[in-house]
Predict the 3D structure of the following.
Amino acid sequence: ALVDDEGFLDQLTAIGHRAGLVVSVCTGSALLAAAGLLDGYRATSNKRSFSWASRFGSSVAWEPRARWVHDGDRWTSSGVAAGMDMAAALIGQLHGAERMRAVMERIEYEPRTDPARDPFARLHTNTHKHSHIHTQTHTLTYTLTHSPKHTHIHTHSHTPTHKYTSWNFWFNHP
């Protein structure tokens, strides 16, 4: 698994430390935490995998009841749909509310704007029933794209129980 791949984590750590902004969606926060990039920050993750994800990082303040968490230059979302809401908030933070509304209208999406409203937090209490999915044999691949202005990491995971999972990370360099 990528969370155990020291070579990958070393690359992710180096890129993350140079980045002006570090963002993850769903269980991508487990990778950031395993790389030490969430130590000293608040973060969240997918609620069905929260018990697993929150095992990573030495000093992460994991928040089980959050749709997304923004803490300084770190942004983490709960699930994939929450990631869309987080992306809307991030656009608003970087470019203003008017630009965010224009982007959301263009993609025909009405985001939830309250990061504390997490109707799926109740699933966290049941995550221990699903923890086995993260220990099964699975195939992980990743693509790293780097330019002077940004780095993009795209990962794919295939497991016997979860046919496809994808994580994306974008790092903007100052």
In short: The chain has five helices and eight strands. Helices lie at 6-18, 28-34, 50-53, 80-95, 97-106. The first strand starts at residue 21 and ends at 24.
